Amino acid sequence: MPDEALLQALCLAARRGVAMRLILPARSNHRLADWVRARALRELAASGAAVRLVPGAMVHAKALLFDDTLGIVGSANLDIRSLFLNFELVLLLRQAADIAALDAWCARLDARAIDARLPPAGALREATEGLVLLAAFQI
């Protein structure tokens, strides 16, 4: 789960026309994360990001592609805990061949993915997601 500042930055980028596609497992190995991620995914989708889910596979990889100029792979999630508490690592890819290989891998995942059908955000769901997110961050 991205923190509020990162989520807003991603939403602003999507709103100004930056093409953004998120490819996530339909189900992860953490049920709480699956529950609360819908809140951020709804905001991103409403901002213009494409949210895609890969059914039947646990995709634990973290990869980012920026056009044909930069790739990032590593263990870090886009959250404060991974970036500042766990000191996880990423590798920057700048060679065209490496970026092309990462792009091909992402394209294979995307070919298996389906567009996310995000649950509607009623008041009860919003409150429950907020409470679960608050509690989960403390774990």
Radius of gyration (CA) equals 15 Å
**Average pLDDT, all residues:** 85
> Helical content, roughly?
40-55%
Q: Kindly report the oligomeric state of this protein.
A: single chain
Number of domains: 1
Number of helical regions: 5
Report the span from N to C terminus: 14 Å
Quick rundown:
The chain has 5 helices and 6 strands, in the order αβαβββαβαβα. It has helices at 4-15, 31-47, 80-85, 96-112, 123-138; strands spanning 21-25, 50-54, 62-66, 70-74, 90-93, 114-115.
Topology, element by element:
Elements: H1 4-15, E1 21-25, H2 31-47, E2 50-54, E3 62-66, E4 70-74, H3 80-85, E5 90-93, H4 96-112, E6 114-115, H5 123-138
Parallel strand pairs: 1-2
Antiparallel strand pairs: 2-6, 3-4, 4-5
Helix pairs in contact: 1-2, 2-5
What descriptive keywords fit this protein?
single chain; 139 residues; alpha+beta; Endonuclease, Chain A; three-stranded mixed β-sheet; globular
Notes on the structure:
It is built from 5 helices and 6 strands, in the order αβαβββαβαβα. It has 139 residues and is α+β, with helices and mostly antiparallel strands. It has one domain: 2-Layer Sandwich (Endonuclease, Chain A). A 3-stranded mixed beta sheet has the order 1-2-6. The longest helix is centred in the first third of the chain and has 17 residues, at 31-47.
